[in-house]
Please model this.
Amino acid sequence: MVKKLGAEFYNRKDVVKISKELLGKILVTNWKGVITSGRIVECEAYAGVIDKASHASGGRRTPRNEIMYGEGGYAYVYLCYGIHHLFNVVTNSRDIPHAILIRALDPIEGIEEMLLRTDKKKLDHTLTRGPGNVSKALGIFTKHSGLSLLGDRIFIADDGGRYSKKETAASPRIGVDYAGKDAFLPYRFYVKGNPFVSGKPR
DNA sequence: GAGTAGATCCTCT
DNA sequence: GAGGATCTACTCA
Model:
């Protein structure tokens, strides 16, 4: 039984808790009938204004991150280093800019299509490892920023699959060294032993 | 195997 | 005009 997550899932206040619950859920994109999906095995929480690693740190508000200040349940896509598209899930309610970065997926559906998009010959653990690759494999670009996850084009589903506490772990986030002590917050959640988890142990 | 540099472009100051 | 929530390839050991 697969069911799409509704607004009540995203609009809760505890972004860390939502992040943990996202592990095991399925991210689906449906561009003009072409469906690709994967199970979320790694993500990071960005806790709004108090989090120096977040784009909304200290209450920063720009046209780019405006979507983070909206309702939960929207996609926030951002281009990093001119190359990588990073896909985030906006959570919490209006004016509270919490978001969750999806870092890795375990591919389920549309693997052929993902291989085409990423210019790979065969499935290997690099296909959906790392946020840049996830977006590439699912065909997510900055123009998709602001899309509702309650629609049909991009959404997150629950098929009842769930990882137990023993199978998951938390660690400091990746690539946010500039954030001072906030870089050490254990806001990265992943499935232990999954080959798609980008492992840069610290 | 580990460490480092380069790619590449949008966004904010 | 500078820098970034990254990835890959290449160098050196």
